[in-house]
């Protein structure tokens, strides 16, 4: 348990300040409920590490965009690679520690709803949740989820109206070659920034840390 808490604390520490509180609450809830539906603690912690490292990487890029524009092309490339390398080192370190902490706490997977009976859309996470403490000040007020395999908007959420209807969100994402492939990306419509992403299969079902669909049936 202490190793799990230490791994979670590392993920929280890697997370940008503006997202830290809400993500910590979300991850604690996932660790509490996930094993009951067949998602292992180690998979949940590795997912949290990837999420925190991704958020930190995008924040560094956003804050450094003006500085980068002043460098020559070669210098910009070197600096960009340095930032990416630093993020990768943090991610690898977190993943190694989390894998070690979760190796003794694996939960056997249980059978869940068959694939053909499960909805593809309706992705849930910190971006469309309400923290236990009730504060949503640092959360996106409106998001769209885009499947980068197809470029289509597959989910949406407006916090003010509590609407999940895609036509109710007046935002058209512009395809970007920097988007991660084979993923769902969550875009904050106020800033146009990608605030979260995760791998999915060809049906749009999220993949676990081992590349398996989360709706796979134990067999």
How would you characterize this protein structure?
There is one protein chain. With 219 residues, the chain is of the alpha+beta class. Helix content is 40%, strand content 12%. It is built from 4 helices and 4 strands; from the N terminus they run H-H-H-H-E-E-E-E. The protein has helices at 2-14, 17-33, 41-68, 73-102, and strands at residues 142-147, 152-158, 183-188, 193-199. It has a 4-stranded antiparallel beta sheet. Strand 1 (142-147) and strand 2 form a beta hairpin. Residues 101-120 have low confidence and may be disordered.
List strands and helices in order, with pairings.
Layout: H1 2-14, H2 17-33, H3 41-68, H4 73-102, E1 142-147, E2 152-158, E3 183-188, E4 193-199
Antiparallel strand pairs: 1-2, 1-3, 3-4
Helix pairs in contact: 1-2, 1-3, 1-4, 3-4
